[in-house]
Amino acid sequence: MLAGVAVLIVRVLRQFLDLPNRLPRWNKALSYIWAPMVALVLITAIFKVNGSALADAYWLIVLFTVAAVLVAVRDYRPARMLLLALAPFLLNKTVEFLLSDSDGSLPKEFDQVLDTTQGFAIIWLITFTIIARNLKKALEKERLLREEEEKAKRLIEAQNAELERLVAERTSALTFQAEELRTALTELRTTQAQLVQSEKMASLGELTAGIAHEIQNPLNFVNNFADVSVEMLTELREEQARPQRDPGLEAELLDDIAQNLQKIHHHGQRAASIVKGMLEHSRASTGERQPTNINHLADEYLRLAYQGLRAKDKSFNATLRDDFAPDLPLVEAIGPDLGRVLLNLFSNAFYAVRQRQLQGEAGYAPTVAVQTRQRGDQVEIRVRDNGLGIPEAVRQKIFQPFFTTKPSGEGTGLGLSLSYDIVTQGHSGTLTVTSKEGEFTEFLISLPIKQGS
């Protein structure tokens, strides 16, 4: 009976203290808790010893074994609580065993005291055993909570590691894409710069052709009047060499030579003015605004654009109409840049009327007109042609970069875009267009007379 109780106590103790994990050797040894009882039974049978005293001895052995196990796992708080619960009962049983007679009975003077203390020890044992059990449950909950927290922590760490990996991959991909975009942007800027330069060179080519044909007229006059003057001088020398000289004829020849020289001077000044304009146009812009005569600028570039197209097609002729306001104030502008804008508008106008002329329309007379007016603190420049006109769908895109209605090889689509930027950004003005397909196109440039006004 006692052996069975001891085995049950050991089983409960193993489970309560988790002895297989905490004390594997003790756990194995406790499997033989019944062995002392067998030994005591054999001693009782062989030596005829009182069985009651031997039973108390076995009980003490079991209790001291349990106490030794609890001491061994004293770092575990429920074990310390059980040891505290067992101490009074173990002390009572030890004293009782020591005071018992050989037959296992207690002297009467100690019987009542030990019974009373035993009752107290049992109550103490039960109370602190319950406390130890509740403490174990609390610790178990804490352990489970810690395990959940550790599990959650490991899960979070795993997720963080995965996120870091994904972020690293995404960062690497974005970095690679950024490098590709930077490379593409660099190539695009290079191409754009080349196209802008190509547009400027095309504009310069048209201007140069116009200048060459425009300067040809005064040079022809200079050459013709110089030849005539040489002939008159020859005739004058012949007259002076005659025995009978005619003073009237000599005076007339001298007057004609003087007039020719004045005309040579006039046309020489005209050629010099054209050359000066060419040099100003080809010179790199400083970006400084200076008072500019818009009438003179518009007249100069109108004729240069016309002569530039005639250099390509000598059969082309058009009517040029200018309506310049006589009292137009000077405008603070960058002359070469504004000249490029006017040259582009005039060139487009002549191109439009030429294309309409090529259609063979009966009675059609190509006409390009320029008008200047002052409107308050603004100066307006209108460039109008009676060419093919611009369709509504095209009109919405006409100032976009690289958009052109000209055939491939005849335009880059940057002329009007650059002109729009020069007027709006470079001069704080506006550039608009009105057109009716098959009838006319009119560009309107509006510039402030003074910057900031």
From TrEMBL:
Record domain Histidine kinase: where: 210-451
CDD domains cross-referenced by the UniProt entry: HisKA
Domain of life: Bacteria
Keyword Aminoacyl-tRNA synthetase attributed: no
EC code: 2.7.13.3
Pfam families: HATPase_c (PF02518), HisKA (PF00512)
Keywords: Coiled coil, Kinase, Membrane, Phosphoprotein, Transferase, Transmembrane, Transmembrane helix
GO molecular function: phosphorelay sensor kinase activity
Catalysis: reaction(s): ATP + protein L-histidine = ADP + protein N-phospho-L-histidine
Entry protein name: histidine kinase
